[in-house]
Amino acid sequence: MSDRGRSRDSRSVGIVTPQVARFDEPLRLACGRQLKSFELVYETYGELNADRSNAVLVCHALSGHHHAAGYHSEEDKKPGWWNECIGPGKPIDTDRFFVVSLNNLGGCHGSTGPNSINPDTGKPWGPDFPVIRTRDWVHSQARLADRLGIDCWAAVIGGSLGGMQAMRWSIEYPERVRHCVVIAAALKLSAQNLAFNEVARQAILSDPDFLGGGYLESDTVPARGLALARMIGHITYLSDDAMASKFGRDLRSGSLGRGSEANAEFQVQSYLRYQGSQFSGNFDANTYILMTRALDYFDLALEYNNDPVEAFRHARCSFMVISFSTDWRFSPQRSREIVDALIAADRPVSYVEIEANEGHDAFLLPIPRYLDVFSAYMQRVGDDA
Amino acid sequence: MSDRGRSRDSRSVGIVTPQVARFDEPLRLACGRQLKSFELVYETYGELNADRSNAVLVCHALSGHHHAAGYHSEEDKKPGWWNECIGPGKPIDTDRFFVVSLNNLGGCHGSTGPNSINPDTGKPWGPDFPVIRTRDWVHSQARLADRLGIDCWAAVIGGSLGGMQAMRWSIEYPERVRHCVVIAAALKLSAQNLAFNEVARQAILSDPDFLGGGYLESDTVPARGLALARMIGHITYLSDDAMASKFGRDLRSGSLGRGSEANAEFQVQSYLRYQGSQFSGNFDANTYILMTRALDYFDLALEYNNDPVEAFRHARCSFMVISFSTDWRFSPQRSREIVDALIAADRPVSYVEIEANEGHDAFLLPIPRYLDVFSAYMQRVGDDA
Questions:
Q1: Which of A299, B7, B98, B305 has its CA 20 to 30 A from that of A113?
Q2: What's A60's DSSP letter?
């Protein structure tokens, strides 16, 4: 491996290559519609052991994808999104575990989604792609587990929307999950969470280039709306403290209020504009709408008399719940609701609130105590495997 | 007065009529430009006493205007924006005080602003209207005080951006203010505050109907951008708690995820959409940009070595500072920074943090302890007058 590959990061999984699994048996969805067939793109890191007991499923969040660790080529500068947590000697230790990370159904990174061809029309699905709910992801992930010969996951793990998938796994397939790691998540969105998602979607829907979702056929993209949606999201991922220490009120130039609004004057403005424009070049608007709706609809206990204790009584696995002190998107209080319900449901649960300045984003970052606690729990998962 | 006028609200100031003051002496602005002349629209409530010592200036916030109390006609259904606090027997008691409330320079409710005609071109100013800072408002308000024969305000009062004007008054014209009431404000915006304003402005700027601010000449308005900006703002005005108790996850219809995104499914979505569309029909986009920039630029201590203590040493008045427990736009911590600086600068200050569920919006609402404390302080102001 060259200087630019694994050697620049001795604890990297190195070069990885996505794979595609095609499923031709129809998948019935929670919305009542079905997909006749679908594809999932995924990556694996580490080796499946002989008794197939060391497999770990990593579920991604709103704008995530299958590329969670390592690099796609020697020239690739940016590793996968959870490279801090997946690799040899890292919390999800690829020397011990066989890690599976996929792009969820409805995504825009290779799995069947709004950009795929609808076999009934020969055109991209676009806005006609079915509404997807978290349970649909879990069911499609179970198909992938079947395909890989994994009867039971050593652990299902996710942060944010990924943590919601992990919880859903624990009650949809209790026999197929030994450990569930739920990071920076919640049992359901609050009204404020819903409100932010609504504004983000409205930004996309009201972009004239969205064309009711049919932008692909007109060879355009609602770049302005997507950028706004990302900017709104980004504010909620960072804590007020993190923004203060990152930018404060630092100016890009010397003085205020003499220029035109077209020029960003505060550092935080140009940062947000950059984040927005990067995202709008890399993400699909219909997928963004689909993902935020899945987030909105997630309500673990809805079909269990709105009682999360009743919901978790169906689970058979052990749980690890992690929250971050300055996360205001899914605050520690939301994690404590999960923990309280698990305890009342008599499920084994470990909980830790990590002191971290970085807000919701902390779950992606190499915060020492977070990595230590996560590693210690995964050690236990490995000992069970 | 009819059933529909003052009698429906025995503590109303009744029917009020806006007045216009025209100023023909040029006003030099902080940005270096000047306005050759300008007009301010204002309302007054109560009577100026013989020694002109009972005048109170009310400063408005981001989207406010001169119409703070009473009704504009017998048919008028909605009173002024601070009707809860201004009127006979209310905290700003019009039986004791002569209250002046104006639309700020740059506004869109009658005072000179982007919608006014630029005398040099004969066309609306639009985006060429000068950048306005809080101190410019204070200077223009001082001109209005001169016109009304008010040498010294009994009190300058404001919430949010209005509180910032009140603080600026206290150090720009120390001899002209006896009391300063600063409600739900801050010494300057945080990076997170700046970020929200940036996204709101970007929503407007990226609306194709904004036309670089020249929409008036094309007989259009950037309604989508303004609606988004208002939705974003609205989320920050309400606490998570307030949203939870107002909407929770209540649905507009029975089931989830079967409809199209065009239909709001949660109550909070339709509420935000309504707020957005109402606002976009009533507010000017160039003014919104101007007001948010004034908010961004406000930094009380910037010219005082970034030391608010040094800034407040120039003040001569007494202060009342009020914050609200669930306000996360300008949290109680931000008010305590004001109070700490005032104490260090040896200025008399009373401070109260009101327990209230309603977030930043609380300053507009009839919360009993808030009204009581505010009334008690204003009683003292009146005794001094």
A1: A299
A2: -
Which of B125, B188, B192 to mutate to test binding with chain A, by most A CBs within 10 Å of its CB?
Answer: B192
Q: Note whether B251 contacts A: Cβ–Cβ < 8 A.
A: no
B188 in contact with A, Cβ within 8 Å: yes
Please say whether the beta carbons of A179 and A320 come within 8 A.
yes
Residue with tokens 């190195």: A14
Q: Does the structure show a pLDDT above 70 at B259?
A: no
Q: Which residue on chain B is closest to A132 by alpha carbon?
A: B257
Backbone angles phi, psi at B347, to 5 degrees: -100, 140
For strand B318-324 and strand B349-354, is the pairing parallel, antiparallel, or unpaired? parallel
Backbone phi, then psi, for B142, in 5-degree steps?
-65, -35
Q: Which stretches within B173-266 are classed as H helix? A: 191-205, 223-237, 240-246
Identify any residues that bridge with A86 across adjacent strands, giving them in sequence order: A92
Whether B177 and B170 have beta carbons less than 8 Å apart is answered as yes
Are A198 and B272 an interchain contact pair (Cβ–Cβ within 8 Å)?
A: yes
ipTM of the predicted structure? 0.92
> Measured between CA atoms, how close is B188 to chain A, in angstroms?
9
CB contact under 8 A, B228 and A227: no
Could you count the other beta carbons within 10 Å of the beta carbon of residue A274?
A: 13
pTM comes to 0.94
In this predicted structure, the answer to whether residue A191 has a pLDDT above a threshold of 50 is: yes
Confidence of residue A10 (pLDDT cuts 50, 70, 90): confident
The reply to whether residue A249 touches residue B192, judged by beta carbons under 8 angstroms, is no
A232 shares contact with chain B (CB less than 8 Å) = yes
pLDDT tens digit sequence for A308-338: 999 999 999 999 999 999 999 999 999 999 9
Q: Letter for the amino acid at A56?
A: V
B118 DSSP β-pair partners:
B123
